[in-house]
Amino acid sequence: MTTPTVLIHRDQALLAQAVAARLVTRIVDVQAARGTASVVLTGGGVGTAVLAELCASGARDAIDWRSLDIWWGDERFLQTGDPERNETGARKALLDHVDVDPARVHAMPATDGPDGNDPEAAAERYAAELGTSARPEDHGPVPSFDVLMLGVGPDSHVASLFPEMPAVYDERPVVAVRGAPKPPPTRISLTFPSIRAAREVWILAAGEEKARAVRLGLSKEAGPVQVPVAGARGRQRTLFLLDRTAASQLPPGIERIASP
């Protein structure tokens, strides 16, 4: 796995702006080289703020939105349009305001979808959709995402991979999560193998309540079963994109880059 690089911004607002700018640059560069790109979105305060900043930026028009595949790292297993769903937040903040190809917006199934209230079947459906989009050069059951963004919880969870729960051991591409310690209890999530298929993984964190999780995630002693964020790494690059308070407890020896 790649060694993380830590970039620190003054506050959450500047963090969201900087990540949005970085995301535009990454997508445009990949599309210029390959004609198409893929990103995995995350919810939460910072993740949604990034999308809102991207929507407000004039640079958003540099992206060929029709040639972008959009995926999610996890989802609350609720009805379509529920305000708690990551998809709902992403559509409100960005996707409803840009010219995306609906066929390339790969939302995770909802409880009113074809599988009804069966999260295991919904997880299998999403895994099949990922598999259909994977190319031979991806060498696996999911695409090699160009950017996969993740928030991190105070308990160190990423996506819906919570410490010591069954999903952290699972090797399938997508799993149903029942009994999550954070409501709602039923979710769908990518697993570590799918996360690690991404070329770049970006961990987004802001606020003092995230500082301990960030420290553990960057500690050499941490393992992904107890500290899931420690297992979230990209094949080519891993970035921890933080504000100053989230970076206030970094372990010694961690290389960090502070923005003005």
Please describe the topology of this protein.
Elements: E1 5-9, H1 12-34, E2 37-41, H2 44-56, E3 68-72, E4 74-76, H3 86-93, H4 119-133, E5 147-151, E6 174-177, E7 187-190, H5 192-195, E8 200-205, H6 211-218, E9 237-243, E10 256-258
Parallel strand pairs: 1-9, 1-10, 2-3, 2-5, 5-8, 8-9
Antiparallel strand pairs: 4-7, 6-7
Helix pairs in contact: 1-2, 2-3
Question: Can you describe what's shown?
Answer:
It contains six helices and ten strands, in the order E-H-E-H-E-E-H-H-E-E-E-H-E-H-E-E. It is globular and about 50 Å long. With 260 residues, the chain is α/β, with parallel strands linked by helices. The strands form two sheets. A seven-stranded parallel β-sheet has the order 3-2-5-8-9-1-10.
Summary tags:
single chain, 260 residues, 6 helices
Could you give a short account of the major beta sheet? 7 strands, parallel
Widest sheet: strand order? Answer: 3-2-5-8-9-1-10
Terminus-to-terminus distance: 29 Å
Task: Report Rg.
Answer: 17 Å
Number of strands: 10
- Our count of helices gives 6
The residue fraction in helices comes out at: 25-40%
Percentage of residues in strands: 15-25%
Instruction: Give the overall form.
Output: globular
Which oligomeric form is depicted?
Answer: single chain
The secondary-structure element order is EHEHEEHHEEEHEHEE
On the 0 to 100 scale, the average pLDDT is 96
State the low-pLDDT regions, or none. Answer: none
Structural class: alpha/beta
